[in-house]
Design brief:
mainly alpha
Length: 152
């Protein structure tokens, strides 16, 4: 086996492992959203269609923090820790506050209403949050930046 063939085998395994890790990460995010749907439906009996849109706005907040707190030049351990801590603190607080506001303004007044009214309002809130995300971030795809810059 030549050196080039060994490098190709290593590259193929590296790519396979990377795809497996990417699949696990995406699957974990889907499971997290599904768990949220299940918990909300089990507690209040409402399918919250805006749940995924709240996640989308939370991801937008995290992306904004990553890009605005990106250090210029070389990153130190302290600057990376500050970025990670701020992202892990601010993003869940934002999502929780947004969920509380949606519950108090939209869902709570409809608790005694017929079952169709909260369902329609959940779809409406989902459309509103989707359009807020499009207004703030635009419709174009964005290139994700890493929290830690790695030069290959």
């Amino acid at each position: 086996m030549s050196v080039f063939a060994a490098a190709d085998v290593f590259s193929a395994w590296h790519q396979f492992i990377q795809h497996c890790l990417d699949g696990l990460a995406v699957g974990a995010l889907i499971a997290l959203v599904a768990l949220g749907y299940t918990m909300v439906y089990g507690i209040i009996g409402l399918i919250n269609f805006a749940h995924g849109d709240v996640f989308m706005l939370g991801a937008l907040v995290a992306w904004t923090l990553i890009t605005t707190l990106e250090p210029s030049g070389t990153a130190t351990t302290g600057s990376i820790a500050v970025r990670l801590f701020s992202i892990l603190l601010v993003t869940p607080l934002f999502c929780a506050a947004l969920n509380v506001a949606i519950d108090r303004l939209v869902y709570r007044p409809l608790r005694a209403a017929p079952p169709l009214a909260p369902l329609v309002s959940a779809i409406g809130v989902s459309f509103i949050l989707m359009n807020v995300g499009q207004f703030l971030a635009g419709e174009a795809d964005r290139l994700g930046v890493g929290v830690v810059a790695v030069d290959l």
